[in-house]
Amino acid sequence: MHLSELKNAGRSPSLPLSLELADAAGPAQLQLLSLLRVLPGQRYVGAGVWRGRPVLAKLLVGSKAGRHFHRELQGVRLLAEQGLTTPLLLADGLKEGEGGWLLFELLEGAESLGDAWKQVEGLPLLADEQTAVLAEALGAIAQLHSKGLWQEDLHLDNLLRHGGKLYLIDGAGIRAETPGHPLSRNKVLENLGVFFAQLPKSLEPFNEELLVHYLLGNAEHALPMEALQKQIDKVYAWRLNDFLEKVGRECSLFSVQRGPFGLRAIRRDEEAVMAPVLEQADALLDQGHLYKTGGSASVGKVDVNGRSVLIKRYNIKNFAHWLKRFWRPSRAWHAWREGHRLTFLGIATPKPLALLEKRFLWLRRGAYLVTEHLPGPDIIERLAPYVESGAAPEPELQALDRLFAGLIRERISHGDFKGHNLLWQDDRWALIDLDSMCQHRSLSSFTPAYARDRARFMRNWPQDSALYRVIDQRVPKDASGSGLCSIPLEK
Predict the structure, then answer these.
(1) Residue spans in the chain of domains classed CATH 3.30.200.20
(2) 213: how many CB neighbours lie within 10 A of its CB?
(3) Does CATH place domain 111-239 in 1.10.510.10?
(4) Which of 423, 416, 414 is nearest to 301 (CA)?
(5) Residues 438-482: pLDDT tens digits?
């Protein structure tokens, strides 16, 4: 295959494939055996064999190939020139009308710090194992900054452990201020903002403690937490908006088909399983365990390949109802987007898996939402034994404290905060039924919405019960969060 043919190979070209590339010693065949990352029509990154040696190949095609090639090559050279640990570049080339290639030594068995973090993220906050991963990352970032460089696309997957060393990868994101001289304070704050904004929100109280691991490697500047937090908030808001745009368009995370007769969105890692579910959603609902049927929505649990999922069908009751719904985004779409918003923000909710919005010449009809099924009890059932005594278990109460703290911090109102919409799962309260959820842009908008949510939540229990009094004391009475209980953070 010619390199230029990759441009039309789509997301999953047939493997293995053979490409003829050249270096100073002449042309040679690259046998590409697997793909690690694909940006269709632009970039293909995978493992292969070249001149009898295992390599990591970055193949760049399409109209932007030249620009991407030079950016990657410049970044790789900057890392090497400053003595930073990065995979050895074995060969590179750019051919007009074909594309560009960079072949690196393959770090077989390497583990990214992103994968290392996934293994420890479920531990108590800032457990030793978590600290070790983050300290390693911050030490590498400090080294990078001390040499006058920074990584625009700074995240844990761009740091690889191999042979007792930590390797910096992805030269395309490497930028320089004055190579060999420490990065300026503003650039340090901006880049650290990118890093900390990608950590779970629950770690935010420990940012100052974590920053020490950076300062041990680069203490060139005083880094006030207020200035750093401002950068973190700025990056976090940008990342959230960018992510919410992706849930509705074709990208590496989501498979999205949009047209005059429908909108279909599926998490890409679930596409093979969820596409058939959407095609036969009505039949599956008829066969499943129905929680609600008729009216504006039908909800049921169904089994798919030995796994329980929840299907919610949004019905059009009559012509008058259709006139109210056809011109605006469906409630299924709203719940799909808001479910992903909560997941991004670290607030528990069932994972949204797939969405189907039926249309006729762009006019919306019925819609379907598929999420994972959470088997846990709702808050009314979970706390029922303690209504009279008020002696609810402290873990459940602390989880409630954390839920309200998160909703207030992010200015999120639920819109229907009845007890059946909070499920106990994995020591957290998970929010369901997100059709009316809203993240408010201002405190003035959030304040009355929060008051309505709180009032509806408190009506789950008799006002003269001991449990009501206990919860009433713990749940903040206003949207500013004043009155929040002190929530112990495990370490």
Answers:
(1) 3-105, 254-372
(2) 18
(3) yes
(4) 423
(5) 999 999 999 999 999 999 999 999 999 999 999 999 999 988 765
